[in-house]
Design goal:
about 120 residues, alpha+beta, 3 helices, 3 strands, about 30% helix
Length: about 120
Amino acid sequence: MKRLRYVKETDAEVLIEINIVLAIRPSYGHKRVTAMINKARKLIELPRYNRKRIYRVMELNGLLLKKEVVVRDHEKTGKIITLHSNTRWCSDGFEIKCFNGEKVYVAFSLDCHPVNPVIHL
């Protein structure tokens, strides 16, 4: 049996604030809406709303954005490859602390094309 979600008496006030933000920014999800509402409430020295409350009110009123499901039909091999060289690069960097307090920085990049891998240091 599915539990019913509770509704607070002041949810109507929260819904008004949510609709004001969504009128300006209709592509915002519940996290950004919460941030915008709490930023405005801070300016007029009102308490913040919990992000879970904003999510609940938006869900009850059908205001959440729909998640796009991406269906991939290829077999996963765990390898990142491209059809042509110089289209996709992988890079990383890190630092090594030496005993004397100095730091050595290392950065590298790799071309993801499987033929003739090129490493740039």
